[in-house]
Amino acid sequence: MNKKDAVKKIWRESFDDSEQYVDMFFSRIYRDDDAMLLVDNGIPSSSLLLQRYAMNFHGVTVSIGYVCGAATIKDARCHGLMHRLMSDALRESYRRGDVLCSLIPANEWLFHYYGHQGFSPVFYVDVERYTSMHTFRHSGKYFRFEDVDSDDAYDFFNTMMRQRPCCVQHSREQYDWILMDNSIDSGTVLGIVDGMDNIAALAFVVSHDGIALVKDVLAVDNDARDAILEEIHNLYADMPVTVLGYYTPGREELVARGMARIVNAFRCLEIIASVYPRLKLVMRLCDSIVPENSHVYRIHDGLCEIDDDYEGQCDFDIDIEVLTSIIFGNDVTRRLLDFPATRPFISLMLD
């Protein structure tokens, strides 16, 4: 059995995905280079995919890893195999040049599980809930845009995503994956244009448990956003609408969506130091899984330096999970620690 077939077999045993979805995923999305497989006693037992994405981070585009399909066959569970495989994936993510590794836990208890490997719940969404009687009011005139798989649609999508600070980005190919995933879920990708025929908004919607679930909505302004939500309301007339919305900075009533774990602390701190030249601190960092991160870092005058001979007092003496929480913290973190924390965002990850 080759690697792809082994991963596919574990996937089918572990997840309740339709055959249509599995066939689409392994024919169009799966890459052998992304797949990691653990063979125990001659049996393929655990697998995951470490996919490649990009994220804008303090004005710099960085490479990140995204873990999906992490699973272990039933007969091999509770023996630490996934912990071993995830540790291998984090070291591989470091080797290939990623700044961080991300994932979206399938269940609430997995937030605790992944926390043991340095992941922190830093990706949040603003969940908006509207009844089926809600009215979305807008003043502009808009028209449906059907060519959501066109280059123009992707260019709009890409432009809007890049305007979000610290947001996981999607390539043209990954945008096509989103469209395929939405189609298999019997969902709808809606687009509208304004009176000048310029794309004004895109929304990705599926019917889920009796609600119209908007997995993301991108709009040029609030009027266009309300207009496309009204289109969704009309299309799913008898359903309440729930939007997994991009958060408003400073708002703290958010819901945890995903987790991240820094895998290259030096590169991460180097970027922050260059953008905030007045930042000055000394940090001792411990990372038991990616030992290359375990150093004393001195940040000053726009530079980040490793100084393991430093014997003075450190401003921070922390592990990798705490560092991740600080770097991707909220406005409270920023004020209390006097550190340029920024809250990241993730959406449309085929989860």
Automatic annotation (TrEMBL):
Keywords: Transferase. The keyword Transferase applies. One of its GO terms (molecular function) is aminoglycoside N-acetyltransferase activity. SUPFAM superfamilies: Acyl-CoA N-acyltransferases (Nat) (SSF55729). It comes from the Bacteria. InterPro entries: Acetyltransferase_Eis (IPR051554), Acyl_CoA_acyltransferase (IPR016181), SCP2_sterol-bd_dom_sf (IPR036527). The keyword Iron does not apply. GO terms for biological process: aminoglycoside antibiotic catabolic process. This is GNAT family N-acetyltransferase. It comes from Muribaculum gordoncarteri.
